[in-house]
Amino acid sequence: MTDRIDEPDRDSCCDCPLAPDRREFIRHATLAAIGALVAAGMPSALAAAVVPDVVSPRGRIGSNPTYPIPTQDGVQIDATNEVILVRWKDAVYAFNLACPHQNVALRWNAGDTQFQCPKHHSKYREDGTFISGRATRNMDRLPIKRAGNEIVVDVDTMYRQDENPAEWAAAFVTV
Questions:
Q1: Which pLDDT value is given to residue 100?
Q2: Does the model's pTM come out above 0.85?
Q3: Are residues 45 and 117 both part of a single domain?
Q4: CB 124 within 8 A of CB 106
């Protein structure tokens, strides 16, 4: 006869004060990975760009989310509002999260400092310009303006480079 060990009640872990929530776990895992990269000799600026920051709006002006002005070059993603914020070379851009080819969520590839579509592998520079792949145009930009120390993104309007070239080219804020 073998002894049977009862499994603990799985719901009992939910009440444990030591169990971190998912967001906290991801934050700690990301910080640990960045720390390991820095310890291995990777420059801190590059290590900080490995994983884009997940952000939420600080507030709203009407239906438009507001975000703090990014303090350094990098990528921030607000999946809820489908916004990518990029600070690059003294400019801040706001992009639609979806690839212009078939609306798949774009990903940031820090190693190559470019965005990539995971479905058809279209690639884009930090400022949203098309590099290669199946897409036929640049990433779609959202109108953006500065209000004090905040960036206001108009999520109800989108500029396609092929349809609104002047508006697309002007859709950034200098910092």
A1: 94
A2: no
A3: no
A4: yes
